[in-house]
């Protein structure tokens, strides 16, 4: 049997958060509902963050309300603090599998820029969020940003990424997604970073999250596959970036990753034709 790779679609969140305008609820819902019929099992659909920081995600509660849930699809949202958790709880639907994603940075510069506090303070802010999720039976995913480079602090030492991943896992069990937020990583540097992280988190609990700014995302995915990773975050139509990471356009495109994985003999269970339709729709939102 072919080796399975799990694709975590982040276009509706990581992609659309970076668009200059706010995309309407109806257009977001149409995109997510189409994606949910492609065989994808994980779709990140919004954020319960401050609307002053990321106005593009301010309609995430209405997006959740408007979706037609598909069996077997898990719908994820970013939550930065207890206020975001409460927003999520109010919008959570009993007919839908939901997950929250918490996020920290491996570099202090990006932590300040993205979350307005230090890495250690972020972890303390997240502790009650992860506890509340555990009590409510909601699964948690964790992100570490700037795993190869930070737009403010320069190259990130691999041991800082391992430290950040371990801090997240100390909060509770979770898959950790490793974000090359500004897409400057190369296969050799990604491999060095992964070797450090693998000393604290097993490959089965890691995901690769590559932005394609430097055109290296597919090569970085291949380097990660070689080290045993079998989960990757992608954005349909190559939407994406981060509003607090200057120079970070473009998550790696879902359709390009599907083509790469098919060529390498991996199976994903995702229908490339439906993704191609969704990619057209996503490109129309730019
Ligand atoms: P702050 O200003 O330090 O927070 O922001 P605060 O607690 O002082 O609150 C300021 C105001 O925001 C208050 O309102 C709060 O009520 C409100 P005011 O009194 O001024 O009217 N507020 C909220 N409103 C709604 N929902 C909330 C919330 N929290 C506070 N949850 C904060 C701190 C964390 C809120 C802010 O920095 C923030 O929202 N940051 C999020 C930034 C973000 O979403 N970035 C993009 C996602 S990360 C990413 O893309 C990277 C990733 O893709 C991986 C990778 O590529 O590396 C995941
Ligand atoms: Mg990202």
Architecture, CATH level 2?
Answer: Alpha-Beta Barrel
Radius of gyration: 17 Å
CATH superfamily: Aldolase class I
Output the number of helix runs. Answer: 11
- Strand runs, count: 10
Bound molecules: 3-hydroxy-3-methylglutaryl-coenzyme A, magnesium ion
| Widest sheet: strand ordering | 1-2-3-4-5-8-9-10
How many domains in all? 1
Determine the N-to-C terminus distance: 39 Å
Q: Please bin the fraction of helical residues.
A: 40-55%
Low-confidence sequence ranges: none
CATH class: Alpha Beta
Global shape? globular
Mean pLDDT score:
95
The succession of helices and strands, N to C, reads: EHHEHEHEHHEEEHEHEHEHH
Output the CATH topology.
Answer: TIM Barrel
Beta-strand share of residues: 15-25%
The biggest beta sheet is recorded as:
8 strands, parallel, barrel
Class inferred from helices and paired strands: alpha/beta
Question: What features would you describe in this structure?
Answer:
- The structure is a single chain.
- With 286 residues, the chain is of the alpha/beta class.
- The chain has a single domain, classed as TIM Barrel, CATH 3.20.20.
- The chain has eleven helices and ten strands.
- It has helices spanning 11-15, 25-35, 60-66, 82-91, 108-115, 119-136, 158-171, 187-198, 217-226, 254-264, 272-283; strands at residues 6-9, 42-47, 74-78, 97-105, 139-145, 149-150, 154-155, 175-180, 206-210, 231-234.
- The chain has an eight-stranded parallel beta barrel with strand order 1-2-3-4-5-8-9-10, surrounded by seven helices. A two-stranded antiparallel ribbon has the order 6-7.
- The longest helix has 18 residues, at 119-136.
- It starts with 5 loop residues before the first strand and ends with a helix.
- Residues 14, 179, 181, 209, 211, 242, 251 line the site of magnesium ion.
- Magnesium ion binds next to loops.
